[in-house]
Structures are given as C-alpha cells and as structure tokens.
Amino acid sequence: MKDKTITLTVETGKGPITMDFEKTIKVVEAAKKAAAEKGYPDGNYVFVHNGGQMQPERPLVSYHLEDGAKVVLSATGDNY
C-alpha cells in the first residue's frame, strides 16, 4: 500500500539508489537496508537530509518527507 510507504532516493558513495521504505521504519533501520542494498559492510549508518543528520531512532514519517526526497547515506561510529 503506497500510503504506508515512501520512496526515497539515497545518495551513496557507490551512486544513488531509489528505494521504498515503510513510513514507520526507524531512520537507522532504513539506512542499514540502503547500505546493504549497495553492498556496504554491516555497520552503523544514518541518513542526512538538507545538511542535517536525521536522528537514528526517529521514524521516517516524523520528518514529513515527500516521495522522491533525497537523503545521503552516512556511516557513523555510533552504536544504535
């Protein structure tokens, strides 16, 4: 169901990828899925949007992103 998902373009060091995510997924979980899809090693990842790091434990829906929004995948040394 499209009303429960959002399509994001994730910019990575290996090129962009367009993915659908459940709106209620936590940022950290969505970022890990994107990292795995692009072949990055298991680790801690977050998204950056409009120059600011998105809080890992917040759900995507809390950012009021529109379909097609662009986020940047960023590795972090933090443990989530």
TrEMBL record:
Protein name, UniProt field: Ubiquitin-like protein
Domain of life: Bacteria
A Pfam entry, by short name: ubiquitin
Domain Ubiquitin-like span(s) in chain numbering: 6-73
